[in-house]
Design a protein that fits this description.
The chain has 521 residues and is of the alpha+beta class. The chain folds into three domains: 53-303 and 400-406, Thrombin, subunit H (Beta Barrel), CATH 2.40.10; 305-396, PDZ domain (Pdz3 Domain, Roll), CATH 2.30.42.10; 414-518, Roll (Pdz3 Domain). The chain has helices at 6-37, 49-65, 143-146, 286-299, 316-322, 338-342, 361-369, 414-418, 428-434, 454-458, 477-485, and strands spanning 69-77, 102-104, 123-134, 138-141, 151-155, 161-163, 165-169, 174-178, 200-205, 213-230, 233-243, 255-257, 263-270, 281-285, 305-306, 309-313, 328-333, 349-353, 356-357, 376-383, 386-393, 395-396, 420-424, 444-449, 465-469, 472-473, 492-504, 507-518.
């Protein structure tokens, strides 16, 4: 996942692991000492019945929601990036700095394959959250969690993993993942129109890839509006819920729920100078999410209405100039568009669309987008201080392609399924190169590990000796080739390997290890 070298993995995480180990050891010793003198007495504080009732309510919400919240990992092929480079969305930190969820851009230094050796792309790995919305395997998440991914893996609460098929809608920043599972626990949606400022809010997800995390707060504000991007390349958020429940990188796509355990929103963004939580998080209201979700499940895509105008929210001076309290200012009209045909002009202010009030730019975008192409709707304008109504026949947004799914990986030969070059352990040159001891007489020698391959993700290294694959004993190169060719697609495969390791003061010994590889084909 991070590198094709297990050694690099260990060096990356050695310090945190050591710190935890020391902390736990100290805690155990302190507990042992204190137990000898501890005298059990009444608790120092007797909480009120209200406090105990609230605590119990939170516990019940956690018990009810945890099984229906999932962790999502998406894999996106990328060119080599400088170490640590991340991609940012303007304005927001979407679940942690770009593309979706917690970015872990640890590119692998490419080797130069030759001949018929398989070539594997390099990947950027992102993680986020999601919620099960149908028991037959439909999961709702943010589009930016899965955008650009060629493989999306869903991990359920009980640890089961599935590779999913993705249906995206970039504009609303929502996506649906279908996995091959049944009888799954599902979330229940609330009516987001009933949400009020001050309500308790509870966020679930996998912040910083810490699965099964729950945080609490309140609904801080309603109807936050944001549009990101231009033209057909937009994400728009017409009525975000704001909350101080802690939302961090990796929470994207997780549910924001009320005290009844009902989903009121989909965690989507944070406002933060640091990239971490500062108490300002945002969620897409449940009503908006359900509208998009249902279309993606039923049709695999979203069809949006189109008027052919540019628009802006009104400033204070605009409101004084045009004599309106709210609306959307028309700043451009495309020739031949539905708006042009209806007579809409630049500097018109749209105050009502299809008998619904227009409160701003994002509100206007949302109302137009949700109108079926071919429908004729009344649009109320303010022009030169006068109200007028025109009828607009809504068109189809040009160049829109919403549905997508992970592309199937290229089929490769048997060795290429694992992503390794192999040789027999009896080859004298190979034995000398990797310093194999005389005790190693059987197995298939890993001579090369290809970047981005299942073997690289599992941490296999050149010099490893595979002695078992998926329960089959491996005596030589041909055994490994035959067994790997017969493995089922999209499977988790266990390999037992022998590896030369340094134990102390430069002394080396062979160690037997178990690793798990996930096959893409």
């Amino acid at each position: 996942m991070f590198s094709n070298s297990l050694k690099q993995k260990l060096s990356t995480f050695a310090i945190p692991v050591l710190t935890i180990a020391i902390a736990l050891g100290g805690f155990e010793m302190a507990s042992t000492r204190s137990n000898a003198k501890m005298e059990q007495g009444p608790p120092p504080v007797q909480p009120s019945a209200n406090a105990l009732a609230l605590q119990t309510d939170y516990e019940h919400v956690a018990e009810a929601l945890d099984p229906s919240v999932v962790s999502i990992t998406s894999r996106e092929p990328v060119p080599v990036q400088p170490m640590g480079q991340q991609f940012q969305f303007p304005g927001f930190n979407f679940g942690g700095g770009g593309g979706g969820g917690m970015q872990m851009p640890f590119p692998i230094v490419p080797q130069q394959p030759g001949g018929n050796q398989p070539q594997f792309p390099q990947y950027q790995i992102a993680s986020g959250s999601g919620m099960i919305v149908r028991s037959d395997g439909y999961i709702l998440t943010n589009d930016h969690v899965v955008a650009g991914a060629d493989k999306v893996t869903v991990t359920l609460y009980d640890g089961r993993k599935y590779v999913g098929k993705v249906f995206r809608d970039k504009t609303s920043d929502l996506a649906v993942i279908k996995i091959n599972a049944t009888n799954l626990p599902t979330v229940q949606f609330a009516n987001s129109r009933d949400v009020k400022v001050g309500e308790l809010a509870i966020a679930f997800g996998s912040p910083f890839d810490l699965k099964d995390t729950m945080t609490t707060g309140i609904i801080s504000s309603l109807n936050r509006q944001e549009v990101i991007g231009e033209g057909n390349d937009q994400r728009y958020y017409p009525s975000l819920l704001q909350t101080d429940a802690s939302i961090n990188p990796g929470n994207s796509g997780g549910p924001l729920v009320n005290v009844y355990g009902q989903v009121v929103g989909v965690d989507v963004a944070i406002e933060s100078p640091s990239g971490g939580n500062v108490g300002i998080g945002f969620a897409i209201p449940s009503n908006d999410a359900r509208y998009i979700m249902n279309q993606l499940i039923e049709n695999g895509k979203i069809t949006r209405g189109f008027m052919g105008v540019d628009y802006a929210s009104l400033t204070y001076n605009d409101k004084q100039r045009y004599g309106v309290k709210e609306g959307a200012l028309i700043t451009g009209v495309i020739d031949g568009s539905p708006a042009a045909k209806a007579g809409i002009q630049v500097q018109d202010v749209v105050t009502n669309f299809d008998n619904k009030p227009v409160t701003g730019r994002a509100s206007f975008v949302n109302l137009v987008a949700r109108t079926a192409p071919g429908s004729t709707v009344p649009v109320t304008l303010v022009r030169d201080g006068h109200n007028l109504t025109v009828n607009v026949t809504i068109g189809t947004r040009p160049g829109e392609s919403n549905a997508s799914k992970p592309s199937a990986p290229d089929q490769m030969h048997a060795k290429g399924r694992l992503g390794i070059g192999i040789a027999n352990v009896t080859d004298p040159a190979m034995r000398q190169r990797y310093g194999l001891p005389s005790t190693v007489t059987t197995g298939a020698l890993v001579a090369q590990v290809y970047p981005g391959s299942p073997a690289a993700e599992a941490g296999l290294e050149p010099g490893d000796v595979v002695i078992s694959l998926n329960g089959k004993t491996i005596h030589n190169e041909q055994d490994l080739s035959d067994v790997s060719a017969a493995l089922p697609p999209n499977a988790d495969v266990t390999a037992v390997i022998r590896r030369m390791v340094t134990i102390q003061q430069g002394e080396k010994q062979m160690e037997t290890l178990m690793v798990t590889l996930h096959l893409d084909n």
